[in-house]
Write a structure and sequence with these properties.
globular; single chain; mainly beta; 153 residues; six-stranded mixed sheet; three-stranded antiparallel sheet; 39% strand; Immunoglobulin-like
Length: 153
């Protein structure tokens, strides 16, 4: 079976998920009872597994499942760096087969990046007994976008 090339861009803190279907000889591969695993490493021969994906069957009889890389695990992998590069693959071990008889059905590169927008730290403030007053929007001193020039009429 030929491998399918799928490259991942993983973002820290995001739900990095794809739904995939595995075909064997052009037909859906019944993965009922199969063990499907996905791992990410810096290089193919790196002894350290950088990330392990969560693989969840959607319709195993039709070979459909989701592969998800946890956003918090991606953040931990980055360790404060802006990006990280590696590779991944997806193995299927059919029910009844032993380790070493799995089939790699997909592989590719991985680019993990730190997210820009993150949830702010949670700060709990006491609620005042009396209302503080109405909230007023603060108008910007200058428009954020250039304004079109008005036509002279």
């Amino acid at each position: 079976m030929a491998r399918t090339r799928i490259n991942w861009n993983l973002y820290a803190g995001d739900r990095n998920e794809k739904t995939l279907q595995v075909l064997k000889d052009g037909d859906p591969w019944d993965l009922t009872g199969a063990t499907v695993t996905a791992q990410c490493r810096r290089t193919a021969n790196d002894p350290v597994v950088a990330l392990t994906a969560s693989v969840t069957p959607v319709d195993a009889s039709q070979g459909i499942f989701t592969v998800a890389w946890d956003g918090n695990a991606v953040r931990a992998l980055l360790g404060g760096e802006a990006s990280w590069q590696g590779m991944w693959d997806l193995d299927v071990l059919e029910a009844g087969l032993s380790d070493g008889e799995s089939e790699t059905v997909a592989d590719g590169s991985v680019l993990a990046e730190m997210d820009v927008t993150r949830a702010p730290d949670v700060v709990v403030l006491p609620v005042p007994d009396e209302p503080v007053g109405p909230v007023q929007p603060i108008p910007p001193e200058e428009p954020l976008l250039p304004q079109p020039k008005k036509k002279k009429g």
